[in-house]
Write a structure and sequence with these properties.
The structure holds 2 protein chains of 2 kinds. By secondary structure, chain A is mostly helical. Chain A starts with 12 loop residues before the first helix and ends in a 12-residue tail after the last helix. The longest helix of chain A is centred in the first third of the chain and has 31 residues, at 70-100. Chain A has helices at residues 13-19, 30-51, 61-68, 70-100, 108-121, 123-134, 139-146, 160-184, 188-196, 201-229, 233-237, 248-257, 262-287. Chain B has 2 domains: 6-226, 3-Layer(aba) Sandwich (Rossmann fold); 239-352, OB fold (Dihydrolipoamide Acetyltransferase, E2P) (Beta Barrel). Chain B contains 8 helices and 20 strands. Chain B has helices at 45-53, 95-105, 110-123, 139-151, 169-186, 197-203, 221-226, 231-236, and strands at 6-16, 19-30, 34-38, 60-65, 68-69, 80-83, 157-161, 190-194, 206-211, 214-219, 241-251, 254-259, 262-268, 277-282, 287-289, 298-309, 312-319, 324-329, 338-343, 349-352. In chain B, strands 6-7-8-3-9-10 form a 6-stranded mixed β-sheet, sandwiched between helices. Chain B has a 5-stranded mixed β-barrel with strand order 11-12-13-20-14. Chain B is elongated. Classes of the chains: A mainly alpha, B alpha+beta. Chains A and B meet through helix 9 and helix 10 of A and strand 6 and helix 2 of B.
Chain lengths: 299, 370
């Protein structure tokens, strides 16, 4: 049976291709490929080439223009200053709640639904709610004023905090669902084993669960960070789009639809993507230092 | 380490919702004993073990370590080592760190932790694998890590939950010897859960047979092997022939039972009255083929199925009246043969039939169970 000796005919070419995974089932990939090419690869490379064809100057002059203008360059820092803490808070807040909810209990579905509802609302409705609740004449400030805790309304909208809250509200359910599924992928017997070996709950968490969860947390952080980094509607609606929440996507929008400078807008979009990639690369590099194999759970 | 001279389970019960998983388990474990909890799946043996470990709270009863009540303590304060069925090794820690975990949790001096870990590694012969992750080990090696991890901190009690069930037959036998060897050389007190009667008989000093959450019998391997307390235990201990019949006559410790037209003489276990329903239990190896001049409990039958099992043959035979017999013999018989079978009355046990066990398998009149 070992291979085709002299005189033995080779298996049919179709069979040999199928052994390497090439068969007619590959055609099933076509719709997905069409989508990826039409909706991602083509626009991306179109934008990339466009960014090297500025209206004035050499191929890199739009990039140079962005970095030489401190107002423009500053948008990177502004966006990071909002997106990084928001993503971090989302992940950190999701861990204890998901940890408490990993087992089975009555009403789990109800609690999960309540926690996940914000994801379905969309940014505009969330912004509307934030304005009503946290605005200068919102309930929150009215309660503070009525109870004489403050003399004048605390400003929580149309600034950094408005955008930050909006990102937490929309990003948390996302982080929570991901962390919950990573947690239920860890075999609960491991913690029971640690308990019989003398570990109290704190050390069971820090020595067993957390190290096994870290790769999942890193992935969750990356995804929530990307969502937060591309913040746009809430930066306009509950932020201060001319000042402290002039995020990078806003800069790209203004270049494209206020100055009609598509090459410049493309260049900004490319810079935006590059910054995201750098952050993700750093997080994933840190992630690879943890154990990322099977954790014995239901996956 | 808090060694004890006696561990006492007093009416330990556990319910899940309305379902009783374990009902009033009374058991006293002496230091140094090897106890096996034995029973079919769902009998409550794992529940009992988890209650002992502190992983499951009791619904009723108490557990006493000498004069100290321990059933209210969390698992980490009981100091019992546990080997899980799935091993539950920490996948992100090396073999060495897995084994040292219990010592680290006790905050022993570094030097002592290192020394005792090395000792445990030698004990389970894993010197070449200390720096590997559990995922890089074979099943048998993982099992040895799990055992080393559970005994390295010299626990007063070691709990084992079907530790051999994931291993292949050859490794299972090896590890069985290993476990018994460790138990003896380290002077451990062990509670071992299994559904394998052979495993339990070969390992344990005392066996506890459970069925539907209740203790059926507690005794030495010999007691359980030769004299099961009721026909359910007999069924579990390898009495494959269970025939339903009716008592014709009781004569002290002996009774005559009529089953499918055969009159069988055997030893009474429990209390039996004339005309009562009875269950007759016989081990396959106690049915003799062509016994020379044996007249008591003699039956003639036709061999229907023969399985080759090395030195022995396992066969199924049917008498003219339809009674099916499972037997083991070293004689060469073949399907279709007419054979004369006989059972020594000392090896034929007669039990009262109970009407209670509706859920369990019933010995039917033809004996064609299983």
């Amino acid at each position: 049976m070992s291979g085709a000796g002299p005189g033995r005919p080779l298996a049919h070419w179709r069979h040999r291709l199928a052994e390497r995974g090439v068969d007619r089932q590959l055609w099933l990939l076509v719709p997905a490929l069409v989508f990826v090419i039409a909706l991602f690869l083509y626009p991306f490379f179109y934008g990339l080439t466009l960014s090297f064809q500025p209206t004035r100057g050499g191929p890199f002059s739009d990039y140079a223009r962005f970095f030489s203008d401190s107002y423009e360059r500053g948008t990177i820092w502004i966006t990071l200053r909002i997106a990084l803490p928001a993503a971090l808070l989302n992940v950190l807040a999701a861990v204890p709640i998901a940890y408490r909810m990993r087992g089975r209990f009555r009403g789990k579905r109800l609690v999960t639904t309540l926690l996940v509802v914000p994801i379905t609302l969309g940014t505009v409705l969330t912004a509307q709610g934030l304005l009503n609740f946290l605005g200068p004449t919102g309930w929150f400030n009215r309660i503070l004023l009525a109870s004489n805790l403050v003399d004048e309304p605390v400003r929580l909208t149309h600034n950094y905090w408005g955008v930050f809250f909006s990102l937490v509200i929309t990003g948390f359910p996302f982080a929570f669902l991901l962390v919950l599924s990573y947690l239920s992928g860890i075999d609960p017997t491991l913690e029971r084993a640690a308990a019989t070996l003398g570990a109290d709950w704190r050390r069971r968490f820090t020595r067993i669960t957390l190290p096994l969860l870290m790769p999942g947390l890193a992935t969750t952080f990356c995804l929530t960070f990307v969502l937060a980094f591309s913040v746009f509607p809430s930066a306009v609606l509950v932020g201060n789009p001319a000042g402290e929440t002039r995020v990078i996507s806003l800069a790209a929008y203004q270049a494209a639809y206020e100055q009609y400078d598509y090459p410049y807008a493309s260049a900004i979009a490319m810079i935006m993507g590059f910054v995201e990639l750098v952050i993700i690369a750093v997080v994933l590099a840190a992630r690879s230092r943890f154990y990322t194999g099977s954790t014995g759970g239901k996956g | 380490m808090s060694a004890f001279s006696q561990l006492r389970l007093d009416g330990v019960s556990r319910r899940f919702g309305g379902q009783a998983a374990l009902t009033e388990l009374d058991l006293t474990i002496e230091a140094g004993e090897f106890i096996a909890l034995l029973g079919p799946s769902g009998c409550g043996k794992s529940t009992a073990l988890n209650c002992l470990a502190g992983l499951l709270p009791l619904t009723a009863g108490s557990i006493w370590q000498d004069e100290r009540r321990i059933d209210t303590l969390p698992p980490e304060r009981r100091g019992f080592g546990m080997v899980f069925q799935s091993y539950a090794l920490f996948p992100h820690l090396t073999v060495r760190a897995n084994i040292a975990f219990g010592l680290r949790m006790r905050r022993l001096p570094k030097e002592e932790t290192r020394r005792r870990t090395e000792e445990a590694v030698r004990l389970v012969r894993l010197e070449d694998h200390v720096d590997k992750l559990p995922g890089q080990l074979s099943g048998g090696q993982q099992q040895r890590v799990a055992i080393a991890r559970a005994v390295v901190f010299e626990p007063s009690l070691v709990l084992m939950d079907e530790p051999l069930s994931n291993l292949d037959a050859k490794l299972r036998l090896e590890m069985r010897t290993e476990i018994r060897r460790l138990h003896q050389s380290l002077g451990l007190t062990t509670v071992y859960v299994t559904h394998d009667q052979e495993e339990a008989l070969s390992l344990a000093d005392r066996l506890v047979v459970l069925r539907e959450g209740r203790v059926q019998q507690i005794g030495s391997p010999r007691e359980l092997h030769t004299r099961p307390a009721n026909w359910h235990v007999a069924d579990f201990m390898g009495y494959r022939n269970l025939w339903r019949g009716q008592v014709e006559q009781v004569d002290g410790a002996r009774a005559t039972v009529e089953s499918s037209g055969h009159r069988l003489l055997g030893e009474v276990v429990g209390s039996l009255q004339t005309r009562a329903d009875a269950v007759v239990a016989v081990r396959p190896e106690d049915i003799r083929v062509d016994g020379p001049g044996e007249t008591r409990n003699a039956m003639s039958a036709t061999v229907e199925v023969v399985e080759y099992q090395g030195r022995e043959l396992a066969a199924e035979a049917r008498t003219d009246t339809g009674l099916v017999l499972h037997l083991r013999t070293e004689q060469r018989i073949a399907a279709g043969d007419q054979v004369k079978l006989a059972v020594d009355p000392q090896r034929l046990l007669v039990y009262p039939a109970d009407a209670s066990a509706a859920t369990d398998r019933q010995p039917d009149a033809s004996g064609a169970a299983r």
